[in-house]
Amino acid sequence: MDGQLMWMLVLQLLVIISVAVCILVFMLKKLVGRSRVPMGSKTILITAADTLIGSQISAHLASMGFRVFAGVSDVNSKGAQRLKSFGSPWLHVIALDVTKNDSLHYAIKAVREHFHAGEKGLWAVIHLAGTGVKTSSLNGGDDEHQLRNALEVTVVGMLRLIRASLPHLSAAKGRLIILGADDGMSLGLRVWGSGAIGVTHGVWTAARFAAEGLASGLRAQLRPHGIPVVSLHPDAYYAQKLNEFPRPTTIYEVRSDCSVEGKPDAALTTEPVIEVLSPYAMKAVEEAILSTAPESTYVLTPSASSRIKSMMIALSPNCVSSAVLKQHKLAHYNHTV
C-alpha cells in the first residue's frame, strides 16, 4: 500500500512539474514574441489598399512612420482618392493587380526605386486582396464565376506576389502577412451575423481556406530564407464585416504625425478613415509586423471579451449554443422590426 501511495505521489509530482514547465515555456515564448524591432525606415507593400480594411491598415501604418506602398486596382478610384487625401509623405498609392505579372513587376520596381540608402529590401508584404463578394446567385450573381475570381485573386495572386517580392523580402528578412480564414473558435456567422450566411460567405470562406493552405506550404518553404508567414484570422464578427454589403459606415480618426512639404499644418490635420478593425484588432496587426518572432497566426477580434465569448460558445454543448443562437436571432429580429 505504501508503495502504491509513493508511486501516486511521484506521478502527481511529475504532472505538476510538466504543467509548470509548459507554462514557463509558453510565457518565455510570449516574452520573446513581444520584443519588437525598431521601426526605423521600413517599407511595407499592401495589396487591395483601396478596400476598407486596406485603407485603415495603410493609413495606420503610415501614421506610425512606415513607408507604405498602397497597391490599388485603379489609382483614380474612390478608395485610392481616400488614401491620397490622407496627405502623408509616407503613404504612396500605386497601381497593383496581383492577377497580372506585368502589374506586379512594375509595382515592385516602383517600390525598389524608393528604397533609402542602406535599406535592404521589403520589411513586409500584406496580402489583403480578395475581400468580399458582392452578390450570390439568389440575387442575380454568378457564384461559380465569383469563386474562380476569388481563387485567382486570393490564392494564385498570393503565389505571384511572393514570387515577385521574394528577393526583397529575403534581403530584409521581412515577412509575408495574409488575411486568412475565420479563426474557427466561434459559431461563425450563425451568432454574429444576421443568420443568413448565403452563398457569398461560402465563396469568401472557400477562397480564404485555400489561401490558408497555400500559406502553410509557403511557411515551410520560406523558413530557410528567414521569412515568416503570418495569417490574420478574422473572428466571426469581422468575417461578417469583410463580406457584407453595403459596407460599414463607422468613422474613426487617424492623425498623421508627419509633415508634408508645402503644407505646414499637415501634421495638425486629421483625416477620417472608415473603420473596419477596432483598436484592439489593430494591436494584433502591429504585433504581426513589429514582433521579432511573430506567431504564425493572430486573431482579429473587436475586444478581449468578444474573443472569450466566442471561445466559450464554441466549447459549450450544442444545447447551449443553440439557445444563444435563438436568443441572438430574436434580438436581431426585434431590432430590425
Which shape, going by the Cα principal axes? globular
Largest sheet: 7 strands, parallel
Structural class: alpha/beta
Considering the protein shown, what is the CATH homologous superfamily?
NAD(P)-binding Rossmann-like Domain
Q: Percent range for helical residues?
A: 40-55%
What is the CA-atom radius of gyration, in angstroms?
A: 22 Å
Number of strands: 9
Give the overall pLDDT as a whole number. 76
Can you tell me the CATH class?
Alpha Beta
Describe this structure in words.
- This is D-beta-hydroxybutyrate dehydrogenase, mitochondrial.
- Keywords: Membrane, Transmembrane, Transmembrane helix.
- InterPro entries: SDR_fam (IPR002347).
- Pfam families: adh_short (PF00106).
- There is one protein chain.
- The protein is built from eleven helices and nine strands.
- It is of the alpha/beta class and 337 residues long.
- It has a single domain, classed as NAD(P)-binding Rossmann-like Domain (Rossmann fold), CATH 3.40.50.720.
- A seven-stranded parallel sheet has the order 3-2-1-4-5-6-9, with helices on both faces.
- Helix 2 links the parallel strand 1 (43-46) and strand 2.
- It is globular.
